[in-house]
Amino acid sequence: MNQQSASEPPMGWNSWDSYGTAVNENAVLANARFMHDYLLQYGWNTVVVDIDWYDPTAKSHGYNADAPIVLDDFGRQLPAPMRFPSARNGDGFRPLANRIHDMGLKFGVHIMRGIPRLAVERNCPILGTEWSASDVADKEHVCGWNPDNYGLKPGHPGAQAYYDAQVDQLVSWGVDFIKADDMQVPFHADEIRAYASAIRKAEQRYGKSVVFSLSPGGALPTTHIDFLREHAQMWRISDDLWDKWSVMSRGLNDACVGAWLTVCPGAWLTHASCRCHSTVGLFLGRS
């Protein structure tokens, strides 16, 4: 990966901790304005919209089975227009990204591993290929806590093509930071590699750098450290930490021992316990 995309640990705000799955455009802009006015001068510069921005029925926490998520004809997620009105004309996140960029900030989004189940149900074509969503979906390797997606078949050329098309659309909107979830526990090396490849292609096409952040954690990163350094700039080293001392203690003891030794410029940990609600990662924030 282009480690210059994160030569310093990115600092910013992620919508999950305050809004769960239900953040909307007004809330994103309000937080962006606060960051511009009070935090940008200290290096806080990244605004990230977390999970389920494509679900018009999203609730503050938890996930909706069979959600009527918003997709384009090629099975790629689109912002739910009732939550993000500037997306109503088919421009996706471009208008919102432009407003955030105008404040001197960077814009990021969360995305789940795999392909939407609704895209498979509709058998959407994969952009620029002879394959469809049902050809590339891996129904055996699905997320254990979110019902939105199936996995993608490792090594299938149509799976790479789907990630290429998805990432190309995100970067064309002006996305600077991609948090890819359900990648590390269990460790999906093929899908991490495919997503990293898609990001490199989009960076070359649009002439910009994109930070690639992996989630969730749950195990020491030393097992896959060389692979992670090659394919991403940030990765989680702990599971979600909640307001229980037993959970906090386990996270600190299991995740931190030895983890700091893996840090180098362009390859940063995102630990969930050193909790600060105004952060993208940098060892901070459950997001």
TrEMBL record:
It comes from the Bacteria. GO terms for molecular function: hydrolase activity, hydrolyzing O-glycosyl compounds. Pfam families: Melibiase_2. Transmembrane segments: none annotated. The keyword Repeat does not apply. Keywords: Glycosidase, Hydrolase. GO terms for biological process: carbohydrate metabolic process. Gene3D superfamilies: Aldolase class I. Belongs to the glycosyl hydrolase 27 family. This is Alpha-galactosidase. It comes from Bifidobacterium ramosum.
